[in-house]
């Protein structure tokens, strides 16, 4: 059960979700993935590491390069659960809270 | 840490309950549900109509960057009590999902905190389960759209 919770923590992060959607289209090297983000290469590398640990990403070696691709089986397992739905509402409610806090201070 | 938003969805039932506590006074929480321009911000959709009264209705619409409509939803309001409750229907247009019934209850905890309970009833157990599985695919698409946005700006 421990591992399962980690998977959800992994996909709870918007950058990590974005990484997953990138490699869902095609396998990529860490460098190519990082080019798609404003964050430092180190930060992206950390995100990739977390996703790999949760088995959401798999790697393969092509020559000297390492390519990351999505582990479709694991993704399906995750999608079957209620967590993404909860996460969607949590994101919305967090936004609501932030907006209204700001609204309060402006008044 | 316990998550702030909780969902209770029992097996083989056609309902779910979403609860959330906010670091906001009740009035501000309620306001976020009735002011169209605030709803737009946190729901991430355009509000075409929002009539906060019994027999009133609402309409949401979301377009992508190219102006294509990607999401349309509407509903009618059955009960509306300021700072207490909203009972409404919710229907996603052009989708296989049937209309659902939503009971929203707003409650004050302290002067600075409040609570929302959202009780949703679906047409069937199957529809509920399909609906629960929907956002993951959407989330991925959304993240992807955001990347496209960023990428197109760089180019």
Describe the structure.
The complex is a heterodimer of chains A (107) and B (155). Chain A is mainly α and 107 residues long. Chain A has a single domain (2-82), classed as Arc Repressor Mutant, subunit A (Orthogonal Bundle), CATH 1.10.10.10. Chain A contains 6 helices and 2 strands. Chain A has helices spanning 2-12, 14-25, 30-35, 41-53, 72-79, 83-106, and strands spanning 57-62, 65-70. A two-stranded antiparallel sheet of chain A has the order 1-2. In chain A, strand 1 and strand 2 (65-70) form a beta hairpin. Residues 1-5 of chain A have low confidence and may be disordered. Chain B is α+β, with helices and mostly antiparallel strands and 155 residues long. Chain B has a single domain (5-154), classed as START domain (Alpha-D-Glucose-1,6-Bisphosphate, Chain A, domain 4). Chain B has an 8-stranded antiparallel sheet with strand order 1-2-8-7-6-5-4-3, with helices on one face. In chain B, strand 6 and strand 7 (100-108) form a beta hairpin. Chain B is globular, with a radius of gyration of 17 Å. Classes of the chains: A mainly alpha (107), B alpha+beta (155). The interface between A and B is large, with 33 and 39 residues. Chain B: InterPro entries: ASHA1/2-like_C, START-like_dom_sf. Chain B: It holds the Pfam family AHSA1. Chain B: Residues 23-151 form the Activator of Hsp90 ATPase homologue 1/2-like C-terminal domain. Chain B: This is ATPase. Chain B: Belongs to the AHA1 family.
Q: How is the secondary structure organized here?
A:
The complex is a heterodimer of chains A (107) and B (155).
Chain A: H1 2-12, H2 14-25, H3 30-35, H4 41-53, E1 57-62, E2 65-70, H5 72-79, H6 83-106
Antiparallel strand pairs in A: 1-2
Chain B: E1 5-8, E2 15-22, H1 26-34, H2 36-43, E3 46-50, E4 57-63, E5 69-81, E6 85-92, E7 100-108, E8 114-121, H3 125-154
Antiparallel strand pairs in B: 1-2, 2-8, 3-4, 4-5, 5-6, 6-7, 7-8
Helix pairs in contact in B: 1-2
